[in-house]
Amino acid sequence: MSWRLLSVIMGYIMLVLVFGGAMLFTFSPFMQDELYGTKRWAFILILILYGCYRAYRLYLIHRQSNHHEA
Fold first, then answer.
1. What is the pLDDT of residue 70?
2. CB within 10 Å: which end of the chain, N or C, has fewer?
């Protein structure tokens, strides 16, 4: 298994976990006693921004591999 394939697989797993965590914190009362108000929304925003960053990195990996194949 190549390192690039492993990196892509782990990237997709991270995307699912990060966006799933953001949805969990947004739509459920999970940890609402400890994390509430502005802190909760800031954490959700951080999760979404990190997920977008990881998605962009995966896009760059795919674009680079398609560029080398052509």
1. 54
2. C
